[in-house]
Amino acid sequence: MPNGCWGWQLTNDDWQLTMIIKLERIKLQTRKTEEAIDITAQVDEVVQKSGVKNGLVNVLTTHTSSGLLVTEGIPCLEEDILTHLSRLFPEDENYHHRRYLDYDGRLGFNADAHLKSIIGGVSCTLPIENGKIVRGSRQTIYFMEYDGPLERTYLIQILGE
Amino acid sequence: MPNGCWGWQLTNDDWQLTMIIKLERIKLQTRKTEEAIDITAQVDEVVQKSGVKNGLVNVLTTHTSSGLLVTEGIPCLEEDILTHLSRLFPEDENYHHRRYLDYDGRLGFNADAHLKSIIGGVSCTLPIENGKIVRGSRQTIYFMEYDGPLERTYLIQILGE
Amino acid sequence: MPNGCWGWQLTNDDWQLTMIIKLERIKLQTRKTEEAIDITAQVDEVVQKSGVKNGLVNVLTTHTSSGLLVTEGIPCLEEDILTHLSRLFPEDENYHHRRYLDYDGRLGFNADAHLKSIIGGVSCTLPIENGKIVRGSRQTIYFMEYDGPLERTYLIQILGE
Description:
- Chain A is an alpha+beta fold.
- The first copy, chain A, has one domain: YjbQ-like (Jelly Rolls).
- The first copy, chain A, has three helices and eleven strands.
- Chains in contact: A-B, A-C, B-C.
- At the A-B interface, strand 5, helix 2 and strand 8 of A face strand 2, strand 4, helix 3 and strand 11 of B.
């Protein structure tokens, strides 16, 4: 049996059912300090390739200065999210994190990015039905870069049958 | 086999186990521009009817100007949530989204609603045990309308046995 | 069959597969009014003891004036989260919740704690692979106390095989 994938077949019947638990790590090179990157097509593709008919998909960033969120996919709104998160957490606030970090060998400088990550969120969970993610027609899945440009990794986990 | 529902029975034993993956779309007519609507009883009912004994339930809005969140179910707090999200994201801020949208044939006007949706969140995931949602005694599930009144749809997905 | 746990064994093969749905309630005594408590080791331990090889874990608080979030595990950032959530939702704002509550027999006084809980979030969902939680090297799971000191309970639910 492959890891994380199981199933069975009844010999006296013509149906076969396979439970699938699948995890994909997706790499992403961000290009700007702050950026909202539409990853919906990528998530759709991984769901489709997984063969899962019904279940759920969980998408999450593996970084603490980036995020994952679901909202309407239009450029003006992408700008509004980044602008207004920066209005709530300005780069030049008096953060405790703005000090020398021994373990990093450098000055902490991105408290605002961590706070945006927490407030905007780091993951989403959506249902899968008939092999497709169920979401509203305007719901777009975004990887949010708050501290780039960096090579980032996010996870897509699919669980279902 | 019904879609999204599977199980088996061992003939040499007296137990039967059924894995259930169920998805319900619930329609909701909101009545105000902004409104916190307690949907806990509705979610409880769908969980109970699903027959799932142990598993999880994921509830999420399908819209990008509404939300889904869990907090204490008292009217004064409902008002505080709406008031203070509006304090963080006033309707008359200088949003990029406040411009003519070709694809909509109208002026973008609800950037504040999208931002509230992102910040307050769009889904919740709760455990099911012995056929009931496990939650704290004061935890109430809310559908949050930030841009009504509208007919809205939210999803209840249940996965378990 | 134990509740919430099922599996089967094919006699004509050498593999055995067990689906596990497990729910743990963890008690936690907080010590301060506001506090970020690293619970990563505790969640790791529950996952390890569950025997689940592949699946997911959902962690959530059962209280509406506390939270659950994932971010970098460093003391200066813990302070920044608490300080800047308090900047967004000061204790002495003019909250509707600041009034006598019949059912509580006391004055509502913690609207700010509820708002921080909503905005910072109350749960996280992470994948499990090869018996371990999959997360970024800097991702730490925090129980957030916004209204302590109190005895608190949070839930760890594991679903997988």
